[in-house]
Amino acid sequence: MVLFLSTRSSWPDFHWQSMILLDVLWLLGFTVFWFQPARRAMANEVLLRSHYWLRLWKQALLPTALLSVFLGALQATLVSQATPTACRTVFALLAARVISAANCQGEKLRESQRLQELQGLSPSWNPIIVRQLLGAPGLLGLLTLFASLVADLLTSSQAWPLLSRPVDARPGGYLVVLGALPSLLSMAAAVWLVSHAVNSSIFESEEICFTKELGCLSGYLSIVLGLLTLLLHVFDLPKLQVMSLVFCFGTMVIAVLASAFGNRVFLGGFSSRCLGVSTLCSAFILSSFIVMLLLDQQLIPNHYELPRQGLAIMEYLSVAAYLLWPLAWTREVHSSWQLHKAWPSKPIQMA
Q1: What string of DSSP letters covers 181-213?
Q2: Better pLDDT: 243 or 68
Q3: Banded pLDDT at 120 (limits 50, 70, 90)
Q4: Bridge partners for 128 per DSSP
Q5: Where are the domains of the chain?
Q6: How far is CA 56 from CA 32, 137, 208, in A?
Q7: What percent of the chain is helix, strand and coil (3-state, nearest 5)?
Q8: Are the C-beta atoms of residues 319 and 183 closer than 8 Å to each other?
Q9: What residues contact 89, with CB distance under 8 A and at least 6 apart?
Q10: pLDDT band, very low/low/confident/very high, at 75 (cuts 50, 70, 90)
């Protein structure tokens, strides 16, 4: 934070850049906390439960969202004499709300959960929410896409703004970065859930196991390339940004197809066929946009002039297909994690 304050270049961008920095630090701290070896084994019992996310929303996310709106409003309003006092008051209230995250009933609820888990039951007051977690990338990403498009349309006269081209950093580009960071992190969690739910049989061939691993690795690589695209967007490197976006969507196509074939969804019943159809549709949309983007940016030399409206619509559909793909696995993931994979079933010790 001290390094950021000492190297900031412009005051108009200060509040946007500070929000991005806080977003990165918050997500990085969350990830490092749960990847610590002593906590990793307990992550399934906490992160897949509804009570944790409700408490996190009330004690951290909502105050942080209000703080972000407050910081953004500071940049858009004139500074008056009363502003310093109002700022200190608002910051104190929000900080107190975040710090007072203790729950006096926490130990009682944890004891109730342990007793029900010993009986092989999922706690009724704290159910698993894998369906909601699979929908989190779509919810966060589509809200970000909508907010960015509205901001670009209100602040610029150019119709059909494109996320794959350099856009005005204020506010459309900053909104994309702010919303895409948690969207990609939730996408990584969704890929992890899908990777643990594609065990359709105990006896699997080496080819099927390899296909599953290839799909999971491709999904994670796509998310890393998405983060790289955001970084290149911040540093205003359009050509490298386009190439990174192409590889991001290309590896996602491999992940979508490999995970589906690894689970043999095309050979199953009605649910598997629906998943297969959605898989093919997502792969087709992503592949089509990759080709259109390569032609439009002249990365493949051609004499075609693609209409901006068609390219923009295909880009929006591709982003939606990318983020909504985990929802196609809702039934498979939910049924798999309902079979006590989300918590350890310990036998009751007899006296």
Answers
A1: HHHHHHHHHHHHHHHTS----SS--HHHHHHHH
A2: 243
A3: low
A4: 49
A5: 11-47+49-76+86-99+109-127, 130-339
A6: 17, 17, 38
A7: 75, 0, 25
A8: no
A9: none
A10: low
Sequence-distant (6+) residues with CB within 8 A of 337 are 48, 128, 130, 193, 196, 197
- The whole-angstrom separation of Cα 215 and Cα 255 is 4
List Cα–Cα distances, 339 to 66, 122, 280, in angstroms.
39, 10, 28
* Interval 152-193: pLDDT, tens: 777 776 677 777 765 555 677 788 888 899 999 999 999 988
Task: Tell me the two tokens of residue 178.
Answer: 């702010």
Over residues 129-143, mean pLDDT: 90
Give Cα 35 distance to the centre of its chain. 17
> Rounded CA gap, 249 and 252, in Å?
5
DSSP symbols for 21-73: HHHHHHHHHHHHHHHSHHHHTTHHHHHTBHHHHHHHIIIIIHHHHHHHHHHHH
Q: Is 279:256 a contact under the CB 8 Å cutoff?
A: yes
Q: Quick check: 176 and 148 in contact, CB under 8 A?
A: yes
Neighbours of 204 (CB within 10 A): 15
- Cβ-contact 220, 61 below 8 angstroms: no
Contact call for residues 320 and 143 (beta carbons, < 8 A)? no
The predicted pLDDT at position 187 comes to 95
> What whole-number distance in Å separates Cα of residue 144 and Cα of residue 139?
9
Position of tokens 């649910």?
271
Dihedral sign (CA 158, 163, 167, 172): positive
What sign has the CA pseudo-torsion 222, 139, 171, 25?
negative
